[in-house]
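Consider the tokenized backbone below.
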């Protein structure tokens, strides 16, 4: 099982960048609920002396729910922000643009203006850079598997979104959101065929089964 490394972040900091930001998203393929993004950065000292409690950290999909919760708790004190796009917005501008909007929001919320005279680079999970950003960027395919900062962003976004979906499950108990988190499972498909979509379903997605 591949463990993401801090090698790229360390290399970029040594090359003259003052801040490295990792960005990732969760919920793109869901039929219901928002898409959630996270942007996170660490001080350079963190990369030199990373606390032992981060040992074994990897992308959110390769961790159990309990492991994700633990790592998310350990990351609370770090500099991170979230970006969220809800179903109505997703239906209006499409899921790709919604994800990019949420990513830009997360990065903006980091208050990078404090680094106006500093060199900042954004590491983005995927094969495309984020449009309409003034900072340097690098898009990294499977970045959440390779890059420590992106893996951390994936964990925080996943934990936050899962908690949101558990709250939605209380409003819409028959759909099983607490189990599948809005993804297209057989249970979810069956409930959609029996009860139709809720207000948190993405109407632009195929919702009849």
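A designed sequence for it:
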């Amino acid at each position: 099982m591949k463990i993401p490394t801090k090698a790229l972040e360390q290399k970029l900091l040594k090359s003259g960048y003052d801040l490295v930001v990792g960005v990732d998203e969760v919920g793109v393929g869901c039929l219901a609920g928002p898409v959630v993004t996270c942007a996170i950065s660490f001080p350079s000292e963190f990369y030199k002396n990373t606390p032992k409690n981060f040992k074994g950290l990897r992308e959110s999909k390769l961790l159990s729910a309990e492991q994700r919760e633990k790592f998310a708790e350990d990351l609370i004190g770090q500099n991170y922000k979230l970006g969220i796009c809800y179903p109505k917005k997703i239906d209006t501008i499409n899921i790709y643009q919604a994800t990019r909007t949420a990513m830009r929001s997360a990065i903006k919320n980091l208050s990078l203006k404090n680094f106006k005279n500093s060199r900042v680079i954004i590491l983005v999970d995927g094969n495309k850079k984020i449009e309409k950003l003034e900072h340097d960027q690098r898009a990294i395919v499977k970045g959440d598997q390779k890059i420590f900062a992106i893996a951390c962003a994936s964990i925080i976004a996943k934990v936050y979104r899962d908690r949101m979906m558990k709250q939605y499950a209380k409003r819409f108990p028959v759909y099983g959101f607490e189990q599948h988190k809005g993804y297209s499972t057989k249970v979810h498909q069956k409930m959609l065929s029996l009860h139709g979509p809720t207000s948190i379903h993405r109407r632009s997605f195929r919702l009849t089964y």
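DSSP finds nine helices and five strands in the chain.
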